[in-house]
Amino acid sequence: xxxxxxxxxxxxxxxxxxxxxxxxxxxxxxxxxxxxxxxxxxxxxxxxxxxxxxxxxxxxxxxxxxxxxxxxxxxxxxxxxxxxxxxxxxxxxxxxxxxxxx
Length: 102
What we know:
Layout: H1 2-73, H2 76-85
């Protein structure tokens, strides 16, 4: 009798260890799959962050250019250029040469 009971306990113990091993192996597989997914996401986020940083730098440069252009538009040189190009105005002491083709 004792032999049968001891044999059953060994069988149950082996079965329990086998189940625990299977559960641990499944957890390891799930963790590895999630880890690879997270690494892919991290890589895409890093790439996106780099492109956004480049866009920020270009927009900051553009903003600086607009500030410089704003300063330029407040100068008399800009006003003279606009008056000559768009309105066709000239100073009274200027001599204008026109080609015969016009």
